[in-house]
Design goal:
GO terms for molecular function: electron transfer activity; FMN binding; heme binding; metal ion binding; oxidoreductase activity, acting on diphenols and related substances as donors. This protein is mainly alpha-helical and 207 residues long. 83% of the residues lie in helices and 0% in strands.
């Protein structure tokens, strides 16, 4: 049976997710300020990067979960999850720009061009910017539904770039467990979309 929350229940669910999504950041700040970390910079860099990937998976999981569960109200959570993906991605980038390069844009750019894993991560972040900037209802109306949908399909480019960035970063320590897990999760989430698209096209062709 489909679960259809009342407006009040839906609001409480969104509020709970909003607060919970800030817990990882609060933990990073707390551990850093209390001096409990041996390598705070590395911890924050890895933490913000990991949570960017988590929210990428959460965002892409909304559509499959909605289709399988018939909980159409889940679509109302996708924008917030996507913005949190950008938020943690922004923090990940700012950690790199601030603590690694002290806002020296020239040195940062040299690093981006020199190291491939930073290059693809930077590209993925840049592609996230127009998605975050056009996330409001006003921008949907201004762009028009179809153009807005085409723009937000950039997420299907961003996802593999993010995985490649993570893979190359872990390759230095020959630790591929996490990248493989993320790659498998995203393969399932994206593969489900491809399957449903071709199934729909096949049904339409037989009609």
């Amino acid at each position: 049976m489909a679960f259809n929350p009342t407006p009040r229940q839906a609001g409480l669910i969104k509020a709970a997710i909003f607060v919970l999504a800030l817990v990882p950041l609060a933990r990073m700040v707390y551990l850093t300020l209390t001096g409990q970390l041996v390598e705070p910079l590395e911890f924050i860099t890895r933490g913000t990067g990991d949570w960017t990937l988590y929210f990428l998976c959460f965002t892409l999981a909304v559509t499959p979960l909605r289709k399988l569960s018939k909980w159409n109200w889940l679509i109302k959570l996708r924008r917030m999850l996507g913005l949190y993906m950008f938020f943690y991605g922004f923090l990940h980038f700012m950690t790199f720009l601030w603590f690694d390069h002290f806002f020296d844009l020239q040195e940062m750019w040299k690093d981006v061009l020199k190291r491939p894993f930073i290059t693809v991560g930077f590209i993925a972040f840049v592609l996230l910017i127009p998605l975050a900037a056009t996330s409001t209802n006003a921008m949907v109306k201004r762009l028009g539904g179809k153009r807005w949908q085409w723009l937000h399909r950039l997420i299907y480019v961003i996802a593999p770039l993010a995985i490649l960035h993570f893979w190359w970063m872990k390759a230095g320590k020959h630790n591929f467990t996490q990248p493989i897990i993320f790659a498998c999760i995203l393969a399932v989430l994206l593969g489900a979309r491809v399957y449903w698209k071709f199934t729909k096209a096949s049904v339409a062709a037989r009609a």
